Amino acid sequence: MGLATVAFDIFLRGSKNQRFAAAKSLVDSLRSTGFVKLINHGIPLSTIEKSQEWNKKFFDLKPGLKAQVINPPSPQPQRGWSYKGAETTAGLRAPNPGNVRMDEKENFDVGPPNDTVYPNRWPNDSLPGFQAFTEVFYGQCQSLCLDIMSACEIGCRVPEGTFLKRCVPAASELRYNYYPPVSLSRLHEGKTRRGWPHTDFGIITLLFQDTQGGLEYEDREHPGTFIPIVRERPDEIAINVSDTFQRLTNDFIKAGVHQVFLPQHLALRPELPGEYVLPERHSTVFFFKAHRECMVGSIPDFVNEQMPAKYDDITALEFHNRMTQVLVGNAASATTATA
What we know:
Strands 1-2-13-10-16-6-5-3 form an eight-stranded mixed β-sheet. Strands 9-14-11-12 form a four-stranded antiparallel β-sheet, with no helix packed on it. It is globular and about 55 Å long. The protein has a single domain, classed as Sandwich (Jelly Rolls), CATH 2.60.120. Helix content is about 30%, strand content about 20%. By secondary structure, the chain is of the alpha+beta class. This is Fe2OG dioxygenase domain-containing protein. It comes from Aspergillus transmontanensis.
């Protein structure tokens, strides 16, 4: 089974049988590929387009203004602007040989509104309206993810609330990504990429792409081979399974490996010269996460004699910090190695 596109309004407003069919299609796609696409999901196209506009407005700010809301690299939840080189996805799945593989990317991260433990950083003086829009968009994404968890409960045939109760209060993060223009020769050197093969470490991730392309998921029947995720509708959302969901379901639903590399139309043109420059790329992602004190070992519903528990019972925040340390620690090593 390939990556499915699910019309989510059937789950939201359909009959019991229709809801079950939609939930099953969603879970089947997540299980087989680690990904699914949603349409008719309830987030208006105008809102998605506005998020892309705000994304571009933020990264168009002068470096000094972005630096006023810089995220200091640490294992803690990220808040504010991370400059190119602040993190690298290269070591999330395997050791980073030579510690020199980098991500060609900047990002701006937002946590729950009114989070007093890890407060957000906003460029309000230089970008009025950005905070107000982003907080509303955050709420819409969080609400959609809760509905997706309800569908996953039905599709996995587990009791109502099995996943939902682990996701409240919110601890998710909204991220605006910016991939600056980069030459083919730089990418072909093998030391930098827009995003190395990796998995995310929340429960699921919502991905809102622009039209530039480059997002790919790993073909599980041919490991190491990647398949483009082409945006076919401006309102569609690509969704991937992340590490915490794999842990909770004891590998019943496995995280989706993905990368950001060459857009499909360029990958098919090997004659292009090395000085050819890929245009900038923007994406917005919503990392849906378990609440911080939730234990994210294997849920008993997915454990039996044939499938004993595979994961240690630590809190979601402890797991987040463990993985973020890899993300920023590798970047620090890479910066030192190339200095």
